[in-house]
């Protein structure tokens, strides 16, 4: 779906999410939403906060799992995805904070494997992800699944590509401060979501074209989304120019 502006695209995704939240509320059920970070979903989170404040959308029955977190990083660091999510969304809605799950960037290295396995099990125990929000990196990464990630990959520790560290250096004082590792949901974790929205705005046209129209390949992790049966790309006109 191509929109004139990121604001309109975000409003569309927010509306779809709100409908699903209300539907599950009517059925007395909870709903599991997979969340992304980066600049792309900021306008979506703004709109969800607006729906909460102005239209009374409640998040009491919402359970969230974030895609990824830097490693190592302190939760309270400005750049952590933990801080980002609270700043952009969680501090402004009525979500029960015990329903928020984000990979833990503070754990000692020897505990990470267990933590990743537990994260997968937790997702399964909540019934799996109903709606997954994604952005996309310029190298085709989703979450922090860098090129070369297997379609069978699960939540794990990954080494960030240099290009990713350069792109994300804007949030840090300089590139040397960008963590070299991250914990990310795997591609198989993401692909198990029942519904996926990938959003992209602005200068993402080349990677969007490769992802949507190119080969399905590990070189472009997002291209595996072609094999998902309910995935919508929500993009603006600039990101659509090479389609
Ligand atoms: C980050 C995140 C991804 C995000 C991507 C794009 O590194 N780990 O989940 O989709 O890079 O970022 P942006 O939305 O700022 O372009």
From TrEMBL:
Domain Glucosamine/galactosamine-6-phosphate isomerase, first and last residues per copy: 6-230
Domain of life: Bacteria
Protein name, UniProt field: Glucosamine-6-phosphate deaminase
Species of origin: Segetibacter aerophilus
